[in-house]
UniProtKB/TrEMBL annotation, chain A:
Belongs to the ABC transporter superfamily. This is ABC transporter ATP-binding protein. Pfam families: ABC_tran. SMART domains: AAA.
UniProtKB/TrEMBL annotation, chain B:
It comes from the Bacteria. It is a multi-pass membrane protein. Signal peptide: none annotated. Residues 18-246 form the ABC transmembrane type-2 domain. Belongs to the ABC-2 integral membrane protein family. The lineage of its organism: Bacteria, Bacillati, Actinomycetota, Actinomycetes, Micromonosporales. The chain crosses the membrane at residues 20-39, 51-70, 104-125, 131-154, 166-185, 225-243. Its main location: membrane. This is Transport permease protein.
Length: 310, 249
């Protein structure tokens, strides 16, 4: 597997819009059959990268090869082998569920009969078969998203690009989408997705990059990233006080890193219970104590900061 | 391009019942109202032709304009901003010219259905004097293209739909009134005639009128065709630039 040619290869990839640099020289390799994630806060450059991979946005600099081809020259040929699920659904609300698939299939030159057969299979797959004849407009957000995913599969693509596939969905709908995407992955379809949900990245991605300000700030599997950029456990301490700061000084030396938030203090430690015992040993009595495993979210916040990006 | 055109036909299939009714009823009402109603007050017709017969080709051209304009305004804005149909198409092997050309072809098709319906309504009134009336169809095709292409360019350049209403207020309505549909352009003051002659509609009206009446047009046929072709080609070129700017970024 190690020698397999990457399906997507970017070197020093840059995208500028006027003076603004959206993507600032990234290197990416996506291998066949893997689920690859772009994580990052809003404005990190995830969507711009996805648009370049989708061959609808020419790179400003660097090289990009998709399926061994150059997107600026072979755009249509590459797009023929991609499935794209955009961030905002662009289904036709006036057409039926089935027509949305069959008309889209025609863009790929798929014969009408084959398009109908494939639409039926895909509607089964995304559990919309019983809605085949209904218009798209009244469908729920989750149903529309599943239909968009089905539409992205209509040309039996080599790579499926999913831009924030579960943003705006309720928990049930999200889990159903994840389950379908996981099944696709098992079938060997290469998935490339962007997300700012850590649970989504942990659920779906074999490998991911964390982007911030147009650059890649970390890369690896979810587990590797946690091991590399966080501790095994996190202790969350909440003190009843005007300011948590007053207590922060008394926690010095406990754990590898300490983070003071307005409402609590986070201690990044190897063993949570030992750290809690040490806290009590210093005569401190926090109002609440929570020991938990480090998550991708800790890594994400550590790497991209807690400042709100609007 | 055919796949894109096909998509638009499928969307049309969902609304055609409603639109087919208005496609026939509206011409019938206009012919009755203006042709017979107003025509009753027009003594001796226009240039020896009964007013009804004289006005029908003008109404056909004006209908073609209105359908072409309407289908090139709000729908185009929606395809970019609201439903974002173009974005979906751009993600497939379909090319820029397919997206633009396929949509334009559909608009021209819709305008043609309007022209056909009008011809059918005009036939029993005896308003079609010659077999040349059939050439109204290719004329309508060119006329629809000459309107749709530049309006695609316009609609893909504006940021809000209030600009589209301006187009109807300051282009469509004046043209319908003064470009030779209801009365000869010569009745206008000399200074205003040139505005009428510059409008694509007048060229369509003059050609259509020559066709249904089987009489020579007021101006040269190649001149008319060339002028309309210029609007179509120029409009397409600008629309293509605009589409590219918005879809390939």
């Amino acid at each position: 597997m190690a020698n397999t040619q990457p399906l997507i290869q970017a070197r020093g990839l840059v995208k500028r819009f006027g003076d603004f640099t959206a993507v600032d020289g990234i290197d990416v390799d996506v291998r066949p059959g893997e689920a690859f994630g772009f994580l990052g806060p809003n404005g990190a450059g995830k969507s711009s990268t996805m648009r370049m991979i989708g061959c609808v946005s020419p790179p400003t600099g660097g090289t990009l090869r998709i399926l061994g081809k150059d997107p600026t020259r072979d755009g249509p040929a590459i797009r023929a082998r991609l499935g794209v699920c955009p961030q905002l659904d662009n289904l036709d609300p006036e057409l039926t569920v089935q027509e949305n698939l069959t008309t889209y299939a025609r863009y790929f030159g798929i014969p009408r009969r084959v398009a109908r057969e494939r639409a039926a299979e895909l509607l089964d797959f995304v559990q919309l078969a019983e809605r085949a004849g209904s218009k798209v407009e009244p469908l729920s957000g989750g149903m529309k998203r599943r239909l968009t995913i089905a539409r992205a599969l209509v040309n039996e693509p080599d790579i499926v690009l999913l831009d924030e596939p579960t943003t705006g969905l309720d928990p049930q709908a999200r889990h159903l989408v994840w389950e379908r995407l996981f099944r696709l992955k098992q079938q060997g379809v290469t998935l490339v997705l962007t997300t700012h949900y850590m649970d989504e990245a942990e659920q779906l991605c074999d490998r991911l990059v964390v982007m911030d300000g147009g650059r890649i700030v970390a890369e690896g599997s979810p587990r590797e990233l946690i091991e590399r950029h966080s501790t095994r456990e996190v202790v969350e301490l909440r003190f009843v006080a005007e300011s948590q700061e007053d207590f922060a000084g008394k926690l010095g030396g406990l754990g590898e890193r300490l983070e003071v938030l307005p409402d609590r203090i986070l201690l990044y430690v190897g063993a949570g219970d030992t750290a809690v015992a040490d806290v009590h040993a210093r005569g401190l009595a926090p109002a609440s104590v929570l020991v938990r495993r480090s998550s991708l979210e800790d890594v994400f916040l550590h790497l991209t900061g807690r400042t709100l990006v609007d | 391009m055919t796949a894109v055109f096909e998509f638009w036909l499928v969307t049309y299939k969902r609304v055609w019942r409603g639109s087919a009714l208005s496609t026939f009823v509206l011409p019938l009402l206009t012919v009755l109202g203006f042709g017979l109603g107003v025509g009753d007050y027009v003594d001796g017709g226009v240039g020896g032709v009964p007013y009804l017969d004289w006005i029908v080709p003008g109404l056909i051209a004006s209908t073609v304009m209105q359908v072409a304009m309407f289908e090139s305004t709000w729908p185009v804005l929606s395809n970019f901003n609201w439903v974002r149909t173009y974005e979906g198409q751009a993600a497939t092997p379909v090319r820029l010219d397919d997206i633009l050309g396929g949509n334009l072809a559909y608009v021209v098709f819709r305008a043609l259905t309007g022209a056909v319906a009008f011809l059918l309504v005009a036939l029993p009134f005896g308003a079609l004097h010659s077999w040349w009336a059939l050439t109204v169809l290719p004329v309508s095709l060119l006329l629809a293209f000459a309107f749709a292409a530049p309006v695609f360019a316009y609609s893909s350049s504006v940021t809000s739909d209030s600009y589209l209403a301006l187009l109807f207020r300051f282009a469509v309505i004046p043209m319908s009134l003064f470009a030779g549909v209801f009365f000869p352009v010569e009745s206008l003051p000399v200074g205003l005639r040139w505005l009428a002659y510059a409008s694509p509609l007048w060229h369509g009206v003059d050609l259509s009128r020559a066709a249904t009446l089987g009489a020579p047009p007021e101006w040269s046929i190649p001149g008319h065709l060339l002028y309309l072709a210029l609007w179509a080609a120029g409009g397409y070129a600008i629309a293509r630039v605009r589409f590219k700017k918005r879809l390939v970024i």
